Amino acid sequence: MRRRPIWKFLLWTAFTLCLLGAGTVAGTVWYLLEDLPPLTGLHEYQPSLVTRVYSADKQVIGQFFVERRILVPLEKIPRHLVNAMVAIEDARFFEHRGLDFVGIARAAMTNILSGKVRQGASTITQQLARSLFLSSKRDFQRKVKEALLAIKMEQILGKEQILELYLNQIYFGHGAYGVQAAAQTYFGKDVARVTLAEAAYLSGLPKGPSDYSPYYHPEAAQRRHALVLKRMAEERFISSEEADRALEEAVSFKRLARDEPAPHFVENVRLKLMAAYGEQMVYKGGLQVYTTLSLPDQQAATAALQEGLRQLDKRQGYRGPLRQGANPDEFSKVKAGGAMASAPVGEGELLEGVVTKAAKDGLTVVARGLTGKVAAEDLLWARRRLRGPDPSKHVKEIAAKSPAELFKVGDVVEVGVKKLKGETVQFALEQTPIVEGALLAVDPRTGAVRAMIGGYDFKRSEYNRATSARRQPGSAFKSIIYATAVNQGLSPGTPIVDSGSVYNENDADMVWRPENYDQKFHGLTTLRDALAHSRNAATVRLLEKLGVRPVVDLARDLGIASPLANDLSLALGSSGVTVQELTAAYGALLNQGMLLEPYAIETVVDANGQTLETHVPEPREAISKESAYLITSMMEDVIQKGTGQAAKGLGRPLAGKTGTTNDFTDAWFVGGAPNLVTGVWVGFDEIRTIGEKEAGARTALPIWISYMKKALEPLPVMPFTVPDGVITVKIDPATGLLAPDGASQGVNEVFLKGTEPTQQAAAKSSPSQFFKFDQM
């Protein structure tokens, strides 16, 4: 029997194996083709977009996104940026049809010769396919799908369309998706203004956004930057001279990780958007949200509140070093290429440092690579040591004569940069407050929120104490009681007795004796003086006369929706209200009785430029303009001669009221001018004292003054408008009647027309008149 030649056997075997292999490959490809996502909607593909929130002066103050991306058409992207991306990622992009077989062969040879994977061959189309449709899992199946998708995409889309999608889709690091977001993240500019040198930096990022970050790995970023320029020159996109010039150009990067200027406000806006448009639209729809917030006002408010809380915290007492026994080397160097390197220290900045020397004249502290002094006078407050939660009970005064008795080498402390000149630094001892606060500023003429702070630090607590926390307003509620009085026909000059009384209206076994802050009673006084000096006893007596129901009704008309007590304790602000409610109510009183609810959003525009909503003011009369003027005039005296006198120095017409609650748990000041009203609250989240004698005038008012001084500066000085229905009459303050003719002790008082006194008070005899009478 003749045997077949061996070569025929081998040939048939090879043929059979090839046939089986081809069949397997074909089957695999067919299977994967069936499993590919549909590309029919690729022409209309819309990636998730960033919703951006703008301040009143069109500055970005917040963003909501799944991927931070801002779409930009290809024609607005500089050609040198497009060329840089092509040169470094896919030089044969305009020649292949999705797969670059030349590149694949070159990469394979390079990897074989080096003995490891040194070079990839994914085209721009493959990268886009992976980003749009596939996971980041690295396996053979994904690679085949990527290749098949790239071929199909090249059949559906043109090269320019692929480039536009790619440049808007890919990740550039630090949360930036697409070239527009990348340009703003790294350079703080629109992509259209990116230079060749900047374009080379951006183009080097997609391969390894973290590895080539100019913030964290500047040397690697520079090497990648040089490689991009070299490839651009090799591919003749630029000349060698242009590459050299771009390589020598100094590129400045935007400071990274800047905090949002108004986080509580932006979160408040987000909640409103979510309720109106839903999560999908807010996080992926690319809305443009224009708000009422004034960025300068917000910055002034933040500085005022934080400084005020820090000063209160110092008065409460020093809680001691953050930790002890630290190694000074931890604080003496800044890691090269680290985030710190991009954040130079400035005056007013707060740092953690370590004590390296404690002497009679102060401390030597090293913080973030800087060595500075803390003078002895900046340490004096630390002698008051707080050993527990109650600043009035858990405090111990240390009779230290030297800083060395208070601090040891190795103590880690918080310091503020007081003065910085070259390498010389002067620090001040600081301490992050535990106490909280809130501030809300509103234009009473429109209801526009100009500034909002919901707490000391949003990172510590996202809870918005300006809009959500109901706290007892104390005497700050009195203005509503006195407004009810003038609304019922009483006048600021109406006499009232400030004297001790006992009340037991709710429980016969429980008696209540209202006392004044100064522990004194002042007898016969006027409503004006009772409000100016915050007389508790007189106010309770007034509420008893008016009745609780009319006060509650007026509070509701003024926009206060929180539950209110139906008893005389309401006179002293026993019912919790929010800062927003009370500020809006004062806004109505100072705006001739017209209430405009506080609002934050002016306009919302969708990604196509269509306006979805625009705020339309809806003013509502809460109280007559005449009554509003009378109570405003009374609150002006709070500042001119009462508990708010510290605000007189602002030098313009202002009206407001302090507020303090029992045991000093809450401190308030609410008030303003015709064009700006601000409310400030200070306290702990839990109900406990903020410190002995820490009343509204001492704690909240300084914050209010600090903010209003800056916020009012660009605004015109406006007097409170006197309505036609208000007249001024000279009265005798002791009786409320017309002052006798020629009397020197009468005071001018305002009245609603028709309610002014018509009867003249009896003339009072002076001691000199008695002497003359005795001589007759």
Beta fraction: 15-25%
Q: Structural class, from secondary structure content? A: alpha+beta
Strand order of the largest sheet: 2-1-6-19-20
Q: How many helix segments?
A: 21
Provide mean pLDDT, rounded. Answer: 86
How many β-strands, per DSSP?
A: 26
Spatial shape: elongated
Strand count, sense and barrel status of the largest sheet are:
5 strands, mixed
State the helicity in percent bands: 25-40%
Cα-atom radius of gyration = 36 Å
End-to-end separation: 172 Å
Low-confidence stretches: 27-34, 334-343, 767-776
Describe the fold and architecture.
The chain has 21 helices and 26 strands. The strands form eight sheets. It has a five-stranded mixed beta sheet. A five-stranded mixed beta barrel has the order 7-8-9-13-12. Helix content is 36%, strand content 17%. Helix 2 runs parallel beside helix 8 (196-203). A hairpin with a 2-residue loop joins strand 8 (362-367) and strand 9 (370-375). It starts with 5 loop residues before the first helix and ends with a helix. The model is unreliable at 27-34, 334-343 and 767-776 (pLDDT under 50). The protein has 776 residues and is an alpha+beta fold.
Which helices and strands occur, and which strands form pairs?
Blueprint: H1 6-35, E1 51-54, E2 60-64, E3 68-69, H2 79-89, H3 101-114, H4 124-133, H5 140-156, H6 159-169, E4 171-173, E5 176-177, H7 178-187, H8 196-203, H9 218-234, H10 240-248, H11 263-284, E6 288-291, H12 295-316, H13 329-332, E7 350-359, E8 362-367, E9 370-375, E10 384-386, E11 395-397, E12 412-421, E13 424-430, E14 436-442, E15 449-453, H14 478-487, E16 495-498, E17 523-526, H15 527-532, H16 536-546, H17 548-557, H18 579-590, E18 594-595, E19 601-605, E20 611-614, E21 620-621, H19 625-641, E22 655-660, E23 666-673, E24 676-683, H20 696-711, E25 726-731, E26 747-752, H21 767-775
Parallel strand pairs: 1-6, 3-5, 9-13
Antiparallel strand pairs: 1-2, 4-5, 6-19, 7-8, 7-12, 8-9, 10-11, 12-13, 14-15, 14-24, 16-17, 18-21, 19-20, 22-23, 23-24, 25-26
Helix pairs in contact: 2-8, 2-9, 4-5, 4-6, 8-9, 9-10, 12-20, 14-16, 14-17, 14-19
